[in-house]
Amino acid sequence: MTRWLAEYAWLPDHAEPTPDVLIEATDGRLTAVTPLTGGGSPAAGVEVLGDATRLPGLTLPGLANAHSHAFHRALRGRTHDGRGDFWSWRDLMYSVAARLDPDSYLALARAAYAEMALAGITCVGEFHYLHHGPGGTPYDDPNAMSAALVEAAAHAGIRLTLLDAAYLTGGVDGAELVGPQRRFGDGDALRWAERVDAFRPADEHVRLGAAIHSVRAVPAEQLATVAGWADRHGLPLHVHLSEQPAENDACRAAHGCTPTRLLADHGVLGRHTTAVHATHPTAGDVALLGDSRTGVCLCPTTERDLADGIGPARRMAEAGSPLSLGSDSHAVVDLFEEARAVELDERLRTRKRGHFGAVELVTAATVTGHAALGWGDAGRLAVGDRADLVTVRLDSARTAGVPPVGVFFAATAADVTHVVVDGRTVVADGRHLTVDVPTELGDSIAAALS
Is 328 assigned a catalytic role? Predict the structure, then answer.
């Protein structure tokens, strides 16, 4: 058994953090979460043991990064000068995709996932479409790039949901994949499913899922094949949706409807589906997403970095769509920033304050994100759940004097001091225990760009 004594802990169904909480775990599961009474005196029947690790600050459940493209980390700081938009940025992204192989991708993803661990992320959803070798030729192992990501997450000490993405065409009009895009494609949805079926990692830290890259990349008549594969296997399904107005316009021109309606008509929406971005939905789209209980993953730091726009987060939540968070392109890896941006961007959009409270933001960053990735037993400090702990200091220049309930509006990833994943300490005193993150990021990015 392992014990921790949290100065403050955010417990389920509590409006604010609880002081002095004894947390116990066995075999990676929480076995007791016990608030202590005034000033650290034990509640009745609780023995104070000297082997409990003290966690000064606020302890949260593990954070879930529900949307990642690991290789995009190599672009940070390289796409920000000059003018342009999503489409010009995409050309730079393709230039990185053209260079990676399984070995270099393993090194880059290992460092990127370790950076996430330092930020308090205990589980990541990797929206994976960089499948094949140059020109689209499969590796001897057609899932070699998938295996590299699984190994990278294991080295970094976090859990992974590998969302294997079908990416079959270069536009809603069915244009063929060209250039680096050829590395993404499997020909058609049936061959995509055959490749994914052949990949069955036994590692306990990984689960599989499916993804439709977008309505630009999967023909309408093949959407149901991908969605049906995910449904038969009981796996989560993710899809980029209405990230750009141009996507909406192209879909209307080709199919006479919005991307959301196209997905609905082909059985893609539902409780096990997460729409990523949903930045430009119509009122009807919001209703379709909410009525079907399709989740929405917001990635505010990427959406603003790419000048995508600000989506109607409050309206989508009120319509019935559970909200989760992702760092997407990794322009920033900081779920505290992603969470507060949901509220702050809504203020910019509406010119009003007070749309999302602290509990809603914590929920989006923890339990909802894990559920969207197929880990329904994570994201809460509750008996029986996975022993994932993230401790944030309350005495930094950013958090000093801030009440614990205000941490998601004040802290950054730099304030994370301690991270436990499935009962194993991964980060202590702000340092990753197995990966030299700055060095490995620098080396792997240099290699990827060479």
Answer: yes
